[in-house]
Amino acid sequence: MAAAEFDVPELKDDIEVPKIREGSMAHAKSFLAPKPVQDFMGYPHELSEDWKERAIDKMGDLLGKYRSLKVFLDACVHCGACTDKCHYYLGTSDPKNMPVARQDLMRQVYRRYFTTPGKLFPKLVGAKDLTKETLDDWYSYYHQCSECRRCSVFCPYGIDTAEITMAGREILNHVGMGQKYSNEILGKVQKIGNNLGLPGPALEDTLEGLEEDIEADTGVPVKLPIDVQGAEVLLVTPSADFFSEPHVESLIGYAKVFHAAGISWTLSSHASEAGNFGLFNGNYETMRKVAMRIRDAALELGVKRIVVGECGHAWRVAYSFWNTLTGIGYGGNDPFSIELQKQLDPNYPQPQHICELTNDLIKQGKIAVDPSANDDLVVTYHDSCNVARASRMGDEPGGQFAIPRELIQSVANNFHNMAEETIYESTFCCGGGGGLLTDDLMEVRVKGAMPRMTALNNVVKEHQVNFMATICAICKAQFTKVLPKYGFDMSMVGGVHQLVSKAIKLD
Amino acid sequence: MTIIYAGMFYIATLLLVAGLVYKIFDYSRTPAPLKIPTTPAPTTQKGVIYRMAKEVVLFESLFKSNKWIWVFGWLFHFGLLLVLLRHLRYFTQPVWFWVDILQPFGKYASIMMVIGLGGLLARRFLVDRVRYISTPSDYLMLVLLLAIGLSGMMMTFVTHTDIIALKGFFLGLMYLDIQPLPQDPALLVHLALVALLMVIFPISKLLHAPGLFFSPTRNQADNPRERRHVAAWAARLDQGN
């Protein structure tokens, strides 16, 4: 299935709601996970004869475990409020990319097998038997959802398609239709310690090289330590930060911040990765296993604080789930987290986002910055979906919007927001999140980026914006690929700490 | 006919109450293993109550998403509420004073309700995206509610029914002392449709009413760093460590 030719959407002044074009994206399918990948995850790699029973059983299992799934499948009234909210629908016109229709792919099967009217009068309530065609639709369209949760903001009942997508993918995995990209990554993170499969020695080499670069650049011996016993801070960051552009510029920024503030810190070769693709597949145990590596590294290294680098879904998992999954947080008085509480410093949020840390340091005057170092840039900020709609920073609701902006404005003089209805909790996804950042889904990614590109294009025209800062590794990787398709320079995107890195004063 | 309708209302009430109690019990028993509030979300339980109240009373999220659906949806629901409150006078003796005060409002609220329903129905035909997602039951439910509204309005504004006898019938039902039901076509249609609505309520999308209160994206406080949030089935995984 080579990536087919496709048209890049033309940018208009406004984001227009298209007329539906049925089936226009049915062909978009990512590669299926092969046997070794599925074996490692404990899933079959092809449909068995009893796949239908397995799928229905799994659905029943999930319905019993997740209130979200049960309530969301029941509560939808097909009001249509979400139909024009998904960036994939806006970019592709395929009606099955409307959140309600994406959910209905599962809801119609749920109705048929789990509800009385669906068993008695399937046609009347839109219930359908589970067939191979349905399963193929699930595979197509549950991999055209970045689980960005924009629909959940606008739904009168808070129905969150991400929860349905996760359940859909878990059922697909369970019958042998796993996605190669995500499941391969889940293997690497568990076997090697990070999503990219960088072994410890390679990581050390990279970090040494970066230290030399920084010293050559600034004359200051800024360190990037790894596996240091007894450091105060354990930094966990997406592995893209170790070698991808522009990600690595942010890593350099974090190192400079720790250096300038005099905070001892370390990375861990066993748990260098913050990203947790377990989230995307809706498997609690996988997500827990991947998160547990961080807890183990923290205990092993004896750190007092855990800080998370610039990554969207990683921050969601860290902020919202680590405490529950691993006891990293203020925990409770259960034996499971007490061990960790003895070690972690209660004076800091656990875990803490790197933007919270840096912003606090600047506000307290513990590090000095010169915003004029970024005077060549006119900056805008892309709220990454998982940070914006599924997590928080600081003490107040909405801190996840305020803190990164505060930070940017203290290190750069020229800043303009994109249009109100495309940022904050209404932010448009980059188009590559949720396990879609694979070349086999390039058409979905490019078309799904259209709403964000439209908003960006408008601030470029009105305010001469030439830099879009963001705090998600997937956003950065996606935009560097997609910006050129829309006629922008790929160097227009970068991390918030890339700006910090330029402006920070080192001694 | 009186016996048929009496039986029908007993059965419908039983199904409505039993069905709803079962569903609510089922929702509350199903664990929510992770904190998934859609942010920015309140960080305290009080804040959650305030957020929920805004959703229930003002349809806040819907207001953000689509003004047409909001206008029609709100007209329908608020109209229905007033109409239902007005109907309390058929079930209470003596009638509570505030139900008395509400009577004229409830009477004209039926117009709001019917306009709202009409608008929602029109959207199903006119907007291609909404037409695509509509199932026959989506149309039928609007038609059912419209028919209930219109048959009720008939009795209020066109041909009055014997309201004293009707009240006698319902009070009788409540005290297990069956009284004759007025044999008025508009009333018979109205009551039959209401009974039908009661029956389908717990097995249909009308579950959005209780569902909203159980929606984790809306009813959870955003405090996961401060509190562990472990479901029973997930806690069992901890014992392995």
Q: How would you portray this structure in words?
A:
Chain A is mainly alpha-helical and 507 residues long. Chain A folds into three domains: 35-184, Orthogonal Bundle (Fumarate Reductase Iron-sulfur Protein, Chain B, domain 2), CATH 1.10.1060; 195-355, no CATH class; 368-503. Helices cover 49% and strands 5% of the residues of chain A. Chain A has 23 helices and seven strands. A four-stranded parallel beta sheet of chain A has the order 2-1-3-4. In chain A, strands 5-6-7 form a three-stranded parallel beta sheet, sandwiched between helices. The longest helix of chain A is centred in the middle third of the chain and has 19 residues, at 200-218. With 241 residues, chain B is mostly helical. In chain B, 72% of the residues lie in helices and 0% in strands. The radius of gyration of chain B is 22 Å and the shape is globular. The N and C termini of chain B lie far apart (67 Å). Chains A and B meet through helix 2, helix 3, helix 5, helix 7 and helix 9 of A and helix 1, helix 3, helix 6, helix 7 and helix 10 of B. Chain A: Pfam families: CCG, Fer4_8. Chain A: This is Reductase, iron-sulfur binding subunit, putative. Chain A: Residues 67-96 form the 4Fe-4S ferredoxin-type domain.
